[in-house]
Amino acid sequence: MTIQIRTKIELALSAAALLTLGSATASTVIVEETFGGAGGALDSSTAETFDAGVGAAGGSSAWVSSDTFFDDGSVVVGTSAISSAYLNLGSYINDTKGSANGVFILTMTIGDVTGSGNTWLSMGFSALNEPSTTSHFLNQQGTGSIILRGSGELDMWGGPGGSVAIDGPDGNAGDRTLTVTVDLSDYNGVDNFGSVTWTDSQIAGVLASHDYASDVDFSSIYISEANGTLSTLSGLSLTQVPEPSSVALLGLGSLSMMFRRRK
């Protein structure tokens, strides 16, 4: 009887461990900005979520921003024709090159962009922490940029900067979530330097993808605008896919504790 009871308990614990293992494989949000402020300047405000590991790698939760961006998500006409805001990630992403956890998903939800093809809102990863009065992808620093023009057209750049231009489709009016996914898991520094993929929630499937042809630096994430763009941001996040081997070890450790030899 005792053996049967213990077996049932162990089976129940095994099921619980598997459920825990499944939940542990979920992606982890390491940076998040909800733009839930009261309308103050975005500059010097801090992101709601900023993983301690990013800070330990030299990153900072404080935004560096021009006067165009506000903490409630408003994008207004600033004093500079081109402006940006960024968060410093230090060496956090670069340190994951060639490891199973080197996959990062940057998303931003935005409203309509007003104006013409010369007005645009951009986001992506950036190699350096450029001054906030510049555009990262135009200044040869962007490393996987996507822009939404006032005309509704989407364009992408693999980088560095404005190199590897990819002409995207026209989008529809209304809110959308743009996604830039960088995969460095197969990086070897010789003939594989990672890849980048772009999506738009309004358009089915992948917009485009690009394999990096040389080593790329990922020191920050940024938002940029040009020529008096008006829009609204309602969320930005950076998600890291966990390392499968670490999750597997966690599950195996739990199971080994439960199924060790009975005393």
TrEMBL record:
<feature type="domain" description="Ice-binding protein C-terminal">
    <location>
        <begin position="240"/>
        <end position="262"/>
    </location>
</feature>
<protein>
    <submittedName>
        <fullName>PEP-CTERM sorting domain-containing protein</fullName>
    </submittedName>
</protein>
<dbReference type="Pfam" id="PF07589">
    <property type="entry name" value="PEP-CTERM"/>
</dbReference>
<dbReference type="InterPro" id="IPR013424">
    <property type="entry name" value="Ice-binding_C"/>
</dbReference>
<feature type="signal peptide">
    <location>
        <begin position="1"/>
        <end position="26"/>
    </location>
</feature>
<keyword id="KW-0732">Signal</keyword>
